Amino acid sequence: MTSLEGKLSNAQLELLRLFAEDLEEEDLKYLKQVLLRFRAERLMDRADEIWEEKGWTADDAKRLLETKMRVPYRRQP
Fold first, then answer.
1. Distance between CA atoms of residues 45 and 72, nearest Å
2. Among the residues of the chain, which ranges form H helices?
3. Which of 12, 19, 48, 67 could pair with 8 in a Cys bridge, judged by C-beta atoms 3.0 to 4.6 Å apart?
4. Are 8 and 16 in contact (CB under 8 A)?
């Protein structure tokens, strides 16, 4: 076990192993885009699953968009 294990996620450790060498700036930018796209797709997939589980409709989405969910801050005396 290395000193980084337990402090970093399995994904972070794998990326460190994969990219132990420097990348060209263009390749680094591309890699960031790929990783962000991957994360966004996974989050959207999970959101779709929850949407289906709850049986929500377009009317529910409209209602959520029109609902103010913020709680006003309480003024300190």
1. 32
2. 10-18, 25-54, 58-66
3. 12
4. yes
pTM of the model: 0.63
Which residue has tokens 């460190």?
A: 16
75 — pLDDT class (breaks 50, 70, 90): confident
**Both tokens of residue 41?**
């797709």
* Residues 40/33, Cβ–Cβ less than 8 Å: no
In this structure, what token pair is assigned to residue 67? Answer: 């609902």
**How long a stretch of residues is the chain?**
77
The per-residue pLDDT for range 17-69, each reduced to its tens digit, is: 988 999 999 999 999 999 999 999 999 999 999 999 999 999 999 998 998 88
Alpha-carbon separation of residue 20 from 2, 32, 67 (angstroms): 15, 16, 48
Position 11, amino acid: A
Q: Which amino acid is at 53?
A: E
